[in-house]
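Support request, please re-run this one:
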Amino acid sequence: QAQLVESGGGLVQPGGSLTLSCAASGNIFPWNGMNWYRQAPGKEREWVAAIMSGGRTLYTDDVEGRFTISSDNAKKEWYLQMNSLRLEDTAKYYCNVVSALGGVHYWGQGIQVTVSS
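Re-run finished. Output below.
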C-alpha cells in the first residue's frame, strides 16, 4: 500500500522558516511529478509548488522566491523549504505525488503550518 507522510509543520513567527517533508513508502516510484498544496480555514485547497521528475520546478506567484521545492530520490522524500513566512501562509499543507505507473495520484494526510506572532 503506497503512502505519503508529511512532517515538519508547526508554529512559527512571521518572517520565520520551516521545512516540510513528504516521505513515500510503497509502490509510488517511479514518479512523474510532485506537488504541494495547502488549504486555509474556510478556503479551497490551492496549489503551491511542483517539481517534475526531471527537476523542473514551478511555484504559485504568492510563494515564488520564498519557497523552494526539492526531492531526494534515494530517500524517497520531497521537501518544501519555506522562508519569510507570512500570516497568510497559515494552512494545512498536503503533498501529492503522481506515479509514473498509470498516473495514479497519491496524497498525504496533511500537516498544519501556523504563522503567528
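The mean pLDDT is 96. DSSP finds no helices and eleven strands in the chain.
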